[in-house]
Specification:
With about 300 residues, the protein is mainly alpha-helical. The chain is about 80% helix and about 0% strand.
């Protein structure tokens, strides 16, 4: 490698490093929630596929990608100890480029959201504020499991759902039933985020991160996670019955029953089975989201 090439490598991040710091594997939850919003809107996708594509880009690579870059930038000192091969601590994203990328992705996200309509833009502004507050001081919501998990649940599930519905109806306010479903599944996602905290209890204690397993203890945090996941789905089932959608309500009930069976096994050994429950249980949970989206589609 000649000196000019070495200088360029040391000054600018490579495309591969940029792609890695965006953490594409994390894009699925908000993109799925966006899809639920699209379905629940009742609008036809056939003649609006460009809007759908733009919304998926906004929910996943842009909004979620921004949150990942922000998180990696403000966690760079911890990652230098625990995961030194990550793009920022390893130097593959040199200097302050992690911060610059966070600003660039924030700007691109808000510009696209503005073009998609006022409700989409409003949801994006809230989501972006939560993304920065989650990782950046002085708020750093991730330091407390109550607030950090709620911020992620609202951003990844609720706001993405609202955005999907709003995109399909010209950027206007979605039907109140769509907003209510999005809120309930956002609250349930708080429990899902708690599951992710069981794998890092020792590290969180050392770094003074007050995750719920650290604050409440393993067993109590596990029970709370299950309760927080389950109760919003009970409310969804009740709402679907009240909206004269018994078939969809029963389907969501079956989905919840499957989760309850998994919860029983998880509660027997929370630390060892949290990853297992997170992988399988969350897949079932989001299935219920889509069933609910199809239910409300016929009502709006």
């Amino acid at each position: 490698m000649n000196p000019a090439t070495r200088s360029l490598t040391a000054t600018y991040p490579s495309p591969a490093a940029v792609f890695e710091v965006l953490h594409p594997i994390t894009w699925f939850p908000p993109m799925w929630a966006f899809g639920c919003g699209v379905v629940s809107s009742g609008a036809s996708i056939a003649d609006q596929w460009l809007l759908v594509a733009a919304g998926i880009l906004l929910a996943g690579p842009l909004m979620c990608g921004t949150s990942q870059v922000v998180n990696d930038w403000y966690d760079r000192h911890v990652d230098a100890i625990n995961e030194p091969d990550r793009p920022i601590p390893s130097g593959r994203i040199p200097g302050r480029w992690g911060f610059y990328l966070a600003l660039i992705w924030t700007t691109l996200s808000l510009l696209l959201a503005y073009a998609l309509g006022p409700w989409v833009f409003g949801a994006a502004v809230i989501g972006m504020a939560l993304a920065w507050a989650y990782s950046a001081p002085p708020f750093r919501l991730k330091g407390n499991g109550w607030w950090g998990n709620l911020a992620v649940g609202i951003s990844y599930e609720g706001l993405a759902w609202v955005t999907g519905a709003a995109v399909m109806i010209g950027g206007a306010m979605p039907d109140w039933r769509i907003l209510l479903l999005a809120l309930l599944y956002s609250l349930g996602a708080h429990g899902i985020m708690t599951l992710n905290d069981f794998k890092a209890i020792e590290g969180d204690e050392q770094m003074n991160v007050r995750s719920l397993p650290v604050q409440l203890g393993v067993d109590q945090a596990a029970r709370l996670a299950c309760l927080v996941m389950g109760l919003p789905q009970v409310a969804v089932i009740a709402l679907l019955f009240s909206w004269d959608k018994p078939a969809h309500a029963i389907a969501v009930g079956v989905v919840l029953l499957v989760q309850v069976l998994m919860m029983i096994r998880f509660l027997g050994s929370p630390r060892e089975r949290a990853t297992w429950f997170s992988g399988l249980g969350v897949s079932v949970y989001v299935t219920g989201m889509m069933i609910s989206a199809f239910a409300v589609r016929a009502l709006v």
